Amino acid sequence: MSLTKSQLQQLLTELYQSDPNLKKQERELISIINQISASAPVININPAFIKKLKNELMSQVTVAKVPVVNYNIMKKLIYSFYGAGAMVLVLALGFAVMNGKPAPVVTKAPTPAQQVAVIPKLNQLGEMAFGSLSTVSAGPAMMAERGAVGMGGGGGGSATAMTSAVAPVADAKRIMPPFEMKNYRYVYKGKALELKSDKLAVLKRVRGLSTVEVPDLISGLGMDFINANSFSGQSLQNLTLIQRSDFGYITNINLDEGLVSIYQNWETWPAGKCGNDNACFEAQRVSMSDLSAEADLIKTANQFISDHNIKVSDYGDPEINSDWRRYYDLTTDKTNYYLPEAVEVIYPQLIDGKFVYDEWSGAKVGLSISVHAKYKKVVSVNNLASQNFDSSLYEMETDAKQILAYAEQASNGGIYYMQEDQANKVETVEVELGQPEESFIKIYIYRDGRNNELLVPALRFPIINAPQDVNFYRKSVVVPLAKEILAERLNSVIPSGGPSLMMKN
Known about the structure:
Number of strands: 20
Shape: globular
Largest sheet: 8 strands, mixed
Radius of gyration: 26 Å
Structural class: alpha+beta
Helix content: 25-40%
Distance between the termini: 78 Å
């Protein structure tokens, strides 16, 4: 898209109204505007991204105590140029004012990959394009997610929970030892549900990144002891990069999945150099004061994102995962409590202004960045994935009774059988659910030997009075609205009430 002379002059006039000092940099401004308008990146801007960028820019300008580009002008620029390119212009103007220096020149338009990262790209398909949704399976990927938040019925499902974690076993009947047990019963006390959409879009993440010319790659390795190019039809699946300097990282790029994982190269970090020196290890331990500076942890994560050009524009504002603090507050032996070295900063995933949640814990999912509390350095980056999605309409459940029936029994943890004498010791705890909000839930369907990642429309019920129990990890109850999935979930729900789940000697 090219601008007419009058359009260009209008933009300049509005910018000068915001700050007359910008007129001194007119040549640089015209260069930037012309380059951005020529590149014409066509992107549907996420309103949450606009709000986030505005807040970040305003905070930077506030710190510098200098004039700021008017937000109304910024908004006009955003929609004039259809996307991220305009953001570059706004930021360039903002920092030019702050620093009193000419604005940097944009040398090239965003690449297709960068444009994809700005907001999820949706490829609209026909109805029910992904086939049946009824064969939902946890699969390896989902099991890994569940392992991160806790296994089994512990986590606040209506299946009975115990005070220590128990790994699932293959036997359908799992006999529980005589531990203290609780049964969580969910009760909805909000307003009547209004469900109007009988069909909504289910999203399926498109896996994989661009292909790599394997012959050229292999030839560049200089291997003279084998002709690796002699194997026809090869493709590159994984690429691992290692950084051996102090506080180095290992980066794994899974081309098949379109996933990037970054984690510390342990041997280059201080604890990795301790060898058998216990005093050295003790010196690395984190203190409560290290963990208290949550603003510094978020700042560190944001700086890492900036340094490595990680695209987070389709994610919400960063949030601290404070689960460790809850467990610390609940423990009686705080003296010997081992404080975590790293704290997770979550950038929650946003689709059409709605957050995405994990089914088992009810927590937000998204880009995960763990920050070392002592060194204020990033330890790992997880769930950094390509954001391309196929979209297909599916039938949704509009019967409020069905949705509430599942929400109030939320028992995806699995069945644990008890001896009759144990059942008498079960305490039933009522947990109140609040008014739900529209959201997405991440679900995996295992088909054709692969886990297919779906984002399914859902209702997320907040927990009003979370039990003060170390084993209650559930953050909310999220109910998938896709009719097939909900029906399957309801058929597998365990009746609440605890004592009914028992077997006689």
